Protein backbone atom coordinates (compact mmCIF):
# COMPACT_ATOMS: atom_id res chain seq x y z
CA UNK A 1 0.00 0.00 0.00
CA UNK A 2 1.34 3.47 -0.84
CA UNK A 3 1.72 6.41 1.48
CA UNK A 4 -1.59 8.33 1.50
CA UNK A 5 -0.14 11.03 3.76
CA UNK A 6 2.85 13.26 3.05
CA UNK A 7 4.20 14.29 6.47
CA UNK A 8 5.89 17.61 7.22
CA UNK A 9 8.36 15.93 9.57
CA UNK A 10 9.65 12.44 10.21
CA UNK A 11 7.95 10.11 12.66
CA UNK A 12 10.99 10.38 14.97
CA UNK A 13 10.74 14.20 15.07
CA UNK A 14 7.00 13.95 15.74
CA UNK A 15 7.68 11.60 18.68
CA UNK A 16 10.37 13.90 20.10
CA UNK A 17 8.06 16.93 19.93
CA UNK A 18 5.17 14.99 21.50
CA UNK A 19 7.43 13.87 24.38
CA UNK A 20 8.73 17.43 24.86
CA UNK A 21 5.18 18.82 25.09
CA UNK A 22 4.54 16.58 28.10
CA UNK A 23 8.03 16.72 29.64
CA UNK A 24 7.82 20.53 29.84
CA UNK A 25 5.84 19.99 33.07
CA UNK A 26 9.05 18.78 34.71
CA UNK A 27 11.30 21.63 33.50
CA UNK A 28 10.73 23.40 36.81
CA UNK A 29 12.29 20.53 38.78
CA UNK A 30 15.71 22.10 38.28
CA UNK A 31 16.86 21.48 41.85
CA UNK A 32 17.56 17.86 40.91
CA UNK A 33 17.82 17.50 37.11
CA UNK A 34 18.30 13.70 37.20
CA UNK A 35 15.36 12.61 39.37
CA UNK A 36 13.30 15.74 38.74
CA UNK A 37 13.56 16.02 34.95
CA UNK A 38 15.54 13.25 33.24
CA UNK A 39 13.83 10.23 34.84
CA UNK A 40 10.26 11.48 34.30
CA UNK A 41 11.10 12.47 30.71
CA UNK A 42 12.35 8.94 29.99
CA UNK A 43 9.20 7.57 31.65
CA UNK A 44 7.07 9.85 29.44
CA UNK A 45 8.85 8.53 26.35
CA UNK A 46 8.13 4.97 27.51
CA UNK A 47 4.47 5.87 28.10
CA UNK A 48 3.97 7.54 24.70
CA UNK A 49 6.18 5.75 22.16
CA UNK A 50 5.24 2.09 22.86
CA UNK A 51 1.55 3.11 23.08
CA UNK A 52 1.62 4.64 19.60
CA UNK A 53 3.86 1.93 18.13
CA UNK A 54 1.40 -0.68 19.44
CA UNK A 55 -1.41 1.08 17.52
CA UNK A 56 0.80 1.34 14.45
CA UNK A 57 1.82 -2.31 14.47
CA UNK A 58 -1.71 -3.55 15.20
CA UNK A 59 -2.95 -1.54 12.21
CA UNK A 60 -0.19 -2.86 9.97
CA UNK A 61 -0.95 -6.44 11.02
CA UNK A 62 -4.52 -5.83 9.82
CA UNK A 63 -3.29 -4.67 6.41
CA UNK A 64 -3.44 -0.92 6.98
CA UNK A 65 -0.90 1.85 6.42
CA UNK A 66 -0.06 3.70 9.64
CA UNK A 67 2.40 6.05 11.31
CA UNK A 68 2.54 8.41 14.27
CA UNK A 69 1.91 12.07 13.41
CA UNK A 70 2.11 15.23 15.46
CA UNK A 71 -1.27 16.93 15.86
CA UNK A 72 -0.09 20.54 15.77
CA UNK A 73 -3.04 22.23 17.57
CA UNK A 74 -2.94 19.49 20.23
CA UNK A 75 0.84 19.85 20.51
CA UNK A 76 0.54 23.59 21.20
CA UNK A 77 -2.27 23.12 23.74
CA UNK A 78 -0.38 20.29 25.46
CA UNK A 79 2.84 22.32 25.55
CA UNK A 80 1.15 25.42 26.99
CA UNK A 81 -1.09 23.62 29.50
CA UNK A 82 1.65 21.30 30.78
CA UNK A 83 4.07 24.23 30.96
CA UNK A 84 1.64 26.33 33.00
CA UNK A 85 0.36 23.52 35.21
CA UNK A 86 3.87 22.13 35.62
CA UNK A 87 5.02 25.45 37.06
CA UNK A 88 2.77 24.74 40.05
CA UNK A 89 2.28 20.98 40.25
CA UNK A 90 5.40 19.55 38.52
CA UNK A 91 3.05 17.02 36.87
CA UNK A 92 1.73 16.80 33.28
CA UNK A 93 -2.03 16.70 32.82
CA UNK A 94 -2.51 16.60 29.05
CA UNK A 95 -1.43 14.08 26.39
CA UNK A 96 -2.94 15.20 23.07
CA UNK A 97 0.13 16.05 20.97
CA UNK A 98 -0.21 13.31 18.39
CA UNK A 99 -1.95 10.20 17.18
CA UNK A 100 -1.43 7.20 14.96
CA UNK A 101 -2.78 7.94 11.51
CA UNK A 102 -4.33 4.85 9.90
CA UNK A 103 -5.45 4.28 6.33
CA UNK A 104 -7.12 1.02 5.25
CA UNK A 105 -8.89 -0.31 2.16
CA UNK A 106 -11.55 -1.76 4.45
CA UNK A 107 -12.03 -1.12 8.15
CA UNK A 108 -14.48 -2.89 10.45
CA UNK A 109 -15.61 -2.06 13.98
CA UNK A 110 -13.50 -5.01 15.16
CA UNK A 111 -10.43 -3.56 13.40
CA UNK A 112 -11.07 -0.22 15.08
CA UNK A 113 -11.53 -1.83 18.49
CA UNK A 114 -8.49 -4.09 18.34
CA UNK A 115 -6.18 -1.39 16.97
CA UNK A 116 -7.42 1.05 19.63
CA UNK A 117 -6.99 -1.58 22.36
CA UNK A 118 -3.29 -2.10 21.57
CA UNK A 119 -2.14 1.29 22.94
CA UNK A 120 -3.78 1.31 26.40
CA UNK A 121 -3.08 -2.41 26.81
CA UNK A 122 0.62 -1.66 26.31
CA UNK A 123 0.46 1.09 28.95
CA UNK A 124 -1.27 -1.19 31.44
CA UNK A 125 1.33 -3.92 30.81
CA UNK A 126 4.19 -1.46 31.45
CA UNK A 127 2.46 -0.13 34.60
CA UNK A 128 1.96 -3.67 35.94
CA UNK A 129 5.56 -4.63 35.11
CA UNK A 130 6.81 -1.52 36.94
CA UNK A 131 4.63 -2.38 39.92
CA UNK A 132 5.93 -5.96 39.92
CA UNK A 133 9.54 -4.73 39.87
CA UNK A 134 8.80 -2.39 42.78
CA UNK A 135 7.34 -5.33 44.71
CA UNK A 136 10.38 -7.58 44.32
CA UNK A 137 12.15 -8.38 47.59
CA UNK A 138 15.42 -6.87 46.41
CA UNK A 139 17.15 -3.66 47.37
CA UNK A 140 16.63 -1.03 44.68
CA UNK A 141 18.44 2.29 44.65
CA UNK A 142 16.50 5.50 45.21
CA UNK A 143 16.75 6.53 41.55
CA UNK A 144 15.51 3.10 40.42
CA UNK A 145 12.53 3.34 42.76
CA UNK A 146 11.73 6.89 41.59
CA UNK A 147 11.97 5.84 37.95
CA UNK A 148 9.70 2.81 38.43
CA UNK A 149 7.15 4.98 40.26
CA UNK A 150 7.19 7.53 37.43
CA UNK A 151 6.89 4.72 34.91
CA UNK A 152 3.98 3.08 36.71
CA UNK A 153 2.05 6.32 37.32
CA UNK A 154 2.54 7.81 33.85
CA UNK A 155 1.61 4.60 32.03
CA UNK A 156 -1.43 4.08 34.24
CA UNK A 157 -2.58 7.66 33.62
CA UNK A 158 -2.01 7.48 29.85
CA UNK A 159 -4.07 4.27 29.80
CA UNK A 160 -6.84 5.88 31.88
CA UNK A 161 -6.89 9.05 29.77
CA UNK A 162 -7.01 7.12 26.49
CA UNK A 163 -9.71 4.75 27.77
CA UNK A 164 -12.17 7.58 28.46
CA UNK A 165 -15.11 6.81 26.13
CA UNK A 166 -15.01 10.26 24.54
CA UNK A 167 -14.63 11.53 20.98
CA UNK A 168 -11.57 10.27 19.14
CA UNK A 169 -9.96 8.63 22.19
CA UNK A 170 -9.25 4.89 22.17
CA UNK A 171 -11.91 4.27 24.80
CA UNK A 172 -14.81 5.29 22.57
CA UNK A 173 -13.67 2.90 19.83
CA UNK A 174 -13.13 -0.01 22.23
CA UNK A 175 -16.51 0.74 23.87
CA UNK A 176 -18.28 0.57 20.48
CA UNK A 177 -16.53 -2.68 19.62
CA UNK A 178 -16.78 -4.58 22.95
CA UNK A 179 -18.14 -2.91 26.07
CA UNK A 180 -17.00 -5.76 28.36
CA UNK A 181 -13.37 -5.48 27.21
CA UNK A 182 -13.56 -1.69 27.62
CA UNK A 183 -15.04 -1.99 31.14
CA UNK A 184 -12.32 -4.37 32.35
CA UNK A 185 -9.55 -2.21 30.88
CA UNK A 186 -11.06 0.99 32.27
CA UNK A 187 -11.46 -0.45 35.79
CA UNK A 188 -7.84 -1.66 35.77
CA UNK A 189 -6.66 1.77 34.61
CA UNK A 190 -8.72 3.50 37.32
CA UNK A 191 -7.28 1.17 39.97
CA UNK A 192 -3.70 1.72 38.83
CA UNK A 193 -4.14 5.50 38.43
CA UNK A 194 -6.18 6.49 41.46
CA UNK A 195 -6.67 3.66 43.98
CA UNK A 196 -3.33 1.86 44.17
TrEMBL record:
Any single Gene Ontology cellular-component annotation: membrane
Protein's UniProt keywords contain Repeat: no
Compartment(s) of residence: Membrane
Membrane protein topology class: Multi-pass membrane protein
Chief site of localization: membrane
Residues spanning the membrane: 37-54, 75-102, 122-143, 150-168, 174-194
Keywords, ordered alphabetically: Membrane, Transmembrane, Transmembrane helix
Domain spans labelled Peptidase M50: 42-177
GO biological process terms held by the UniProt record: proteolysis
Protein name according to UniProt: Peptidase family M50 protein
Native organism: Thermoproteus uzoniensis (strain 768-20)
Amino acid sequence: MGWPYRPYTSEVVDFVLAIASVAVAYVFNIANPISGFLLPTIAIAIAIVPHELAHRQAARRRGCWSRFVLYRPGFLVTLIVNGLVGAFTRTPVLFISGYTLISCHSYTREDDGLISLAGPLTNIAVALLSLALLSLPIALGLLSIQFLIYLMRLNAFVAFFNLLPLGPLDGSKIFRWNIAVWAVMFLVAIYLSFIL
